[in-house]
Write a structure and sequence with these properties.
This protein is mainly alpha-helical. Helix content is about 55%, strand content about 10%. Helix 1 crosses helix 3 (about 40-50).
Length: about 90
């Protein structure tokens, strides 16, 4: 599921989730923190869950997402690519 390019939206969502590392956030909360549309936040959150970067709690009325503290161990290569993209996009 890994893609070659990391968008600014995905980088912003990653930064938002990492910044609230102990807090479970809805896709709407992530969208607000990352300054992206809710639909975009859901898409990128799902992708980051699939890559082992975020954890997901399937609760009602909406899923909750949280940065996985061992994300670097789970997917070191993608975490490195995310960090490089954040630097290249000037988001650090």
């Amino acid at each position: 599921m890994e893609t070659n390019e990391i968008s600014i939206h995905q980088a912003r969502l990653f930064i938002a989730a990492r910044g609230a590392s102990e807090e479970w956030l809805t896709a709407n909360q992530l969208a607000e923190k990352a300054r992206v549309a809710p639909r975009t936040a859901r898409q990128h959150a799902k992708r980051l869950v699939d890559l082992g970067i975020l954890d997901m709690a399937e609760v009602f009325p909406g899923h909750r997402y949280k940065f996985n503290e061992i994300a670097e161990k789970r997917n070191k290569a993608y975490m490195l690519r995310l960090e490089r993209a954040i630097e290249a996009l000037g988001l650090n």
